[in-house]
# Entry
Amino acid sequence: MKRLTLLIPFLFLVLTGCASIFTTPSPDTPVEEVIALKGQPDAEYREGDTRLLEWSVGPWAQYAYMARIGPDGRLISYEQVLTREKFGTIQLNRSTKNDVLKTVGHPTETDFLPLIDREVWAYRYKEEGIWNSMMYIYFDKQGIVRRMENGLDPMYLRD
# Structure
């Protein structure tokens, strides 16, 4: 009985914490309420007179969320950004590392390929909500996107 008494508050905390992950804040919500609901963002970016707040779910996760906050301190939009559509807005030979961060957030992994002299950022995501995919974005020395490749996430491949 004592274990059950200790387990119930723990389960309550876990379930209420999980509920905030799945709760989407409504437009016009004050930024303080968004942060109270979602926790401290992992990163913040400026884009004109708006702020972008990023929440990465973790290195093994396939989701990341971005909130756009207006100059009045209220939520304009809140969305899951690791999608085919968002990756499609990244422009070859034009987008920079900063543009990529503002579009899809921080990568799952980074690497440098000396043979082709490119830095690579990799993003795990659930393509079309079904496929375990990995998007690779290649940058030149100036930080410009030069190539993008989509493929199966190697973490889910079987030997």
Remarks:
- The longest strand covers residues 118-127.
- Residues 2-22 form the longest helix (21 residues).
- The helical segments are 2-22, 31-38, 84-87, 97-104.
